[in-house]
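Researcher: Next entry in the queue.
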Amino acid sequence: MVDVNVHFQDAVRLTQKLIELGKENWELAVYPVEDHGFVEPTSWTDEYKRVLKLFETYLK
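Model: Structure for this entry, 60 residues:
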């Protein structure tokens, strides 16, 4: 929510559009305390867990 490059309302609008279009197999992860690049170790950990899960699910 503090990202100066991608404003939170843009993420919300994208989410709404995906819903309206009936798109499936998408995820949204919000990191409210992060700017455009991660600083918090917990954010890095969460991101990499999500990426690993996607790889294991779709590329294995």
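Model: Residues 41-58 form the longest helix (18 residues).
Researcher: Noted, moving on.
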